[in-house]
Specification:
It is built from twelve helices and no strands. The chain is an all-alpha fold.
Length: 212
């Protein structure tokens, strides 16, 4: 009950209140896996700890899940497990390890074939590669991600990935390609937290155009 109440509170209540019940869940569940017959619920519990910034606790939960279900061949479980390991390492700024787990998560997402999971796996891998200055690989995965954000309801995601792709190409000094994808961005859909990056890239592309 604490677990599901915490999940509900994440949506409708202050984070501190949700965190309280999430922490109570961990304390109460000494028999973690006996209580959660479905290992995916355990991964969700780890994810909640990541959200609240408790990455060490999340990591321990993930290690226990990995050991307990070491023989699992369920691609959905292995996809979620590796995505959450990647989130932990990302939070620790260990981008190399985060990339490793993102690549593994993508492999399982391809097996599952679910468009939503493919979008998340590709986008997360591409962004982690970008932050790790692996712009060539990032560009390749951002480009593939665009295939999974074609639906109208995903327009804001498409704008974000177009911006990230254009940024990565700009870092590779491929200004022509960067400009090509930048011009596909609907400026009206750029969210406030991306506007500074959008403006910076626009200024850079304008400068290159003005200087030939």
């Amino acid at each position: 009950m604490n677990f599901y109440y915490a999940k509900s509170l994440q949506v409708v209540a202050p984070e501190a209140k949700a965190e309280l019940y999430a922490n109570q869940t961990v304390v109460l569940l000494e028999g973690l896996y006996e209580a959660f017959g479905n290992p995916l619920r355990v991964i969700e519990l780890a994810n909640m700890q990541v959200v609240f910034g408790h990455t060490k606790r999340a990591y321990q939960i993930l290690l226990m899940a990995q050991n307990r279900f070491a023989k699992s061949k369920d691609p959905n479980f292995l996809y979620e497990l590796n995505e959450q390991f990647a989130n932990v390492f990302f939070g620790w700024n260990n981008l190399e390890k985060a990339v490793e787990h993102r690549i593994t998560a993508l492999e399982y997402a391809r097996i599952i074939g679910h468009r939503g999971k493919m979008r998340i796996a590709l986008g997360n891998l591409a962004r982690t590669l970008q932050l790790n200055n692996q712009f060539n690989e990032a560009s390749r995965y951002f480009l593939e991600t665009l295939e999974y954000v074609e639906e109208p309801e995903l327009a804001s995601f498409r704008v974000m990935y177009l911006l990230r792709l254009s940024q990565s190409l700009y870092e590779l000094h491929d200004v022509q390609s960067s400009r090509y994808y930048f011009h596909q961005i609907d400026a009206a859909l750029v969210k406030d937290n991306y506007k500074e990056e959008y403006q910076k890239l626009e200024n850079g592309l304008t400068h290159h155009l003005a200087n030939g």
